[in-house]
Amino acid sequence: MFAMKRRRFFSMTGGTVLIAAAAYYLQTDKRDFNRDDLKTYSKGTFPFMPDEEQILSLASLDPSGHNTQPWSISYLKPYHWIIGSDETRWLRAVDPAQRETVLSIGAFVQNIEFAANHFGYDCQYTSTAKTNQDKNLMTIQLAKSDFVADFDIQKIKQRRTIRSNYLNNQLTTEDCQYLLNGESDFIQYIPNPSPLCTSLNEQTVSANQTQSYRDPAQKELADWIRFSNKDAAKYKDGLTIASMEINGISAWVLRNFYGKSDVMKKDFREQNIDNVKKQVSESAGWLLITSIDDSTDSLLQTGRRLQRLLLKNQGKKYSHPSDDANIGGKRDE
After folding, report:
1. Which of 121, 205, 210, 300 gives the lowest tally of CB atoms within 10 Å of its CB?
2. Are 135 and 90 contacting, i.e. CB atoms less than 8 angstroms apart?
3. Could you give the CA distance from residue 300 to residue 308 in angstroms, rounded to a whole number?
4. 193: preceding bond cis by omega (within 30 degrees)
5. Which tens digit of pLDDT belongs to each residue from 4-23?
6. In which order are the strands placed within the sheet that holds 3-4?
7. Is the pLDDT at 331 greater than 60, yes or no?
8. Higher-pLDDT residue of 263, 1
9. Is the pTM of this model over 0.90?
């Protein structure tokens, strides 16, 4: 078996949460969507079959907490792999039960399916996990088929985590139907303002305050921030300055003068809390994703559901209600 890690395929940044803000993104700078850090891995001596490397490279562009990329692939034979969990990349301080890890791996599996479909392969899954801590979670086998729907892989390549410049216009009925189509039993839109949205906003701020001032969690965050361009290029994981949407002079200062010890300081913690307050105050609400239970298999399915939602959202032009009409202009995501 041959274990493969995403850093051998692509360099990217990003993160994920199970409850995702359902907000319009006001695109004010086209450069925000350029993936200048995206570099393909040059195929070495490993004998990949045709399409395998491209499918796995695309799959690696999944979201994960602190961009830890906690999945692994064990190569059994061509187009037949074991999807596993890499415990060296678990976030033990903020995710002690590995719940978020399994959700992230579910998103990775969904990317495999979509990428495989694009190249004309059908995916067969066999879940093997009993607990979130199992090393091996499922097997996947690909087979050529004339009966799979093509998928636009540009959505996988262009997906990213947006952290600012949300609009607070509520989603229209049309937009909700588009996003929740086929998933309404598991996804609920909670508009802003509403009592439940206000409660979620308050709980989110409170949770981030608690986590920011819990030293083990903050130290774990520090370990995954790649302040310098050198570290970003070396590790090809974690949270880069660009992924945190820090630009200009502030970005230059952080890249050149900040390190892990600065993350533990009060001003850094307070800035993170302020950013969260701003995010929840300006969004259109929440998309609440649920699962049948908390079993490992259900969490994998929920991670896949999250990724389907994120990719469905990619590139969507949302209706913008105006004061004079039910449907107004269009806005980018």
Report:
1. 210
2. no
3. 13
4. yes
5. 444 444 322 233 333 444 44
6. 3-4, 71-77, 80-85, 136-144, 121-127
7. no
8. 263
9. no
